[in-house]
């Protein structure tokens, strides 16, 4: 990769084989990043190298097993750098964010007493709601919901602070909304939760593709994201503070030695996926071509540059959509911090039909439905929800102005 370039997108696009796919006479424009991003060749190479040359179970004395241990350690260290975790031992891998969250919730549930309170939000993906709601059923916990400010995808932070009390044990909140892009004031919310003596679980799945994640600055006791939304394979990644890993009663097998991440992880992991997840983080860190600084420093440089470029491109996208008379956008108020994901509907057209037409006519991929942010989508877009949901378009590192123009033209052509 060279260091002279116009945009990050121009620099990285040759690395993504999926961008060479042509559909309806145009290279595919992937606006489905909030549902899953494309994968660069070095990540594919790392996965296939693992499977071809090092594939083994971990922890044994023979060569490929030792190589597997080394590869997993390297990926865990990359994930720790990605999160600013104090130690790779605080990094947990699992099938996906949802499964990891159910697993962590189960451990937390075992420490709850009936009447203990858990705060969830009406904006979140249900992967950060329902594992906690399950604890109400299993352990008699009480669930409190942070409401939305009327008709906006914005949390009512005053209402949130009023919900906290001496029985609050956990606050579960998303760093940014996968449906609307809204960035929540998580550091402020975490500080309030800690003052009340509660733990904080952060869903960083949507945010991880757009920001430098820092568990320390956020005040997250636990946090989870998915590698497949950040240019990696289908693997979930979680952070859990060291002292909590010691304290929580994770489900595990009797012969298992509870050491390092093994305090929470169980079974044989998805080695090739984990190797790919680490390679995706290393890819992002190397994107600007600078050999200077730690992995985290280089990653932060890429993410800062990406955020800057995405902001300008997202502005073009939202301005273009707002100018179309038959398009309804579901947006937070102007000036709200936001990641580059926009939700909308087109009058008289079902979201699924819009997505199918954009794919079939323009090679433009957008998602439709409620994206499991079902509570917020039902509240903010009740009519669209009744006929299958809304349309969502999100930017990724490879998004270009030409693609944004093609998306807007495609929508303008649906009348
Ligand atoms: C914000 C958010 N949280 C959680 C999830 C669930 O992630 P996973 O598919 O890894 O379980 C998603 C997936 O779409 C998401 O966007």
Structure notes:
The protein is an alpha/beta fold and 415 residues long. Helix content is 41%, strand content 15%. The chain has 15 helices and 15 strands. Helix 2 (41-54) runs antiparallel to helix 10, helix 11 (295-322) runs parallel beside helix 15 (401-412) and helix 12 packs across helix 15 (401-412). The termini are far apart. The structure holds pyridoxal-5'-phosphate. Pyridoxal-5'-phosphate binds at residues 34-35, 96-98, 125, 127-128, 174, 178, 203, 205-206, 226, 236.
CATH-defined architecture of the largest domain: 3-Layer(aba) Sandwich
**What is the 3D shape?**
globular
The CATH topology of the largest domain:
Aspartate Aminotransferase, domain 2
* Number of discrete helical segments: 15
Bound molecules: pyridoxal-5'-phosphate
Structural class: alpha/beta
How many domains make up the 3D coordinates? 2
Strands, count: 15
Helix content: 40-55%
Q: CATH homologous superfamily name of the largest domain?
A: Type I PLP-dependent aspartate aminotransferase-like (Major domain)
Uncertain stretches of 5 or more adjacent residues: none
Distance from N terminus to C terminus (CA atoms, Å) equals 43 Å
Integer-rounded radius of gyration: 21 Å
Counting copies of identical and different chains, the oligomeric state is single chain
Side-by-side strand order of the widest sheet:
4-10-9-8-7-5-6
Largest sheet: 7 strands, mixed
Q: Determine the strand fraction and express it as a percent band.
A: 5-15%
- What is the succession of H and E elements? HEEEHHEHEHEHEHEHEEHHHEEHEEHHEH
Query: CATH top level of the largest domain?
Result: Alpha Beta
Average pLDDT for all residues? 97
